[in-house]
């Protein structure tokens, strides 16, 4: 089952109002101009940063918020899939934990993005939808294995990004958010690897 995307406004209409970049736009990528929520959020931020002639470090800050939000959205959906359809108890339990932790993270990411007037995706992008669809079409133990392989891969990306940004983010509030969530993310990556090992042992 794919996560549906909202209908998007035309690019022309969005760009006419971009100078003000209201918070409502900053919080939602679905007011971009394409069908890919992640690309829309990135484009909004690139336009804002280019207009303000801001540094490359601030571009990295914006990209971090977009990617962290995109990953968290996919992790929530994969966690729900594991909860409802995985065969191994360890995978189902990890799915529940992933949903809870990433929903909390999403709340923090969205609040911070709104405060900084930066856009983050409100739905899965094309690549993330494809990854979810590919996992959701599996059955039995193959679903367990595919879901956990994806979750380990994504959570490793999270761990690397939050580790970097807790020291290197230009914005102090983004550094603080990365520092706050780095240890829980690192610990959950270890738990993901354990659940993936359990899945790999299935026939």
UniProtKB/TrEMBL annotation:
Keywords recorded for this protein, A-Z: Signal
Domain of life: Bacteria
N-terminal signal peptide: 1-26
UniProt key word Signal: yes
Pfam families noted in UniProt: DUF4142
DUF4142 domain segment(s): 60-194
InterPro entries in the record: DUF4142, Ferritin-like
Protein name: DUF4142 domain-containing protein
Organism: Hymenobacter mellowenesis
């Amino acid at each position: 089952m794919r996560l549906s995307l909202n209908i998007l406004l035309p690019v022309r209409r969005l760009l006419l109002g971009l100078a003000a970049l209201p918070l409502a736009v900053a919080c939602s990528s679905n007011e971009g101009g394409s069908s890919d929520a992640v690309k829309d959020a990135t484009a909004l931020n690139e336009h804002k940063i280019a207009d303000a002639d801001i540094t490359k470090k601030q571009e990295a800050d914006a990209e971090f918020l977009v990617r962290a939000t995109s990953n968290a959205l996919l992790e929530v959906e994969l966690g729900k899939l594991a909860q409802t359809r995985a065969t191994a108890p360890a995978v189902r339990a990890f799915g529940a934990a992933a949903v809870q932790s990433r929903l909390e993270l999403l709340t923090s990411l969205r609040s911070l993005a709104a405060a900084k007037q930066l856009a983050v995706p409100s739905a899965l992008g094309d690549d993330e939808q494809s990854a979810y669809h590919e996992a959701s079409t599996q059955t039995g133990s193959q679903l367990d294995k595919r879901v956990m392989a994806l979750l380990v891969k994504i959570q490793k990306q999270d761990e690397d990004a939050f580790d970097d940004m807790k020291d290197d983010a230009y914005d102090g509030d983004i550094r603080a958010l990365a520092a706050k969530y780095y240890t829980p993310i690192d610990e959950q990556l270890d738990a993901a690897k354990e659940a993936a090992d359990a899945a790999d042992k299935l026939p």
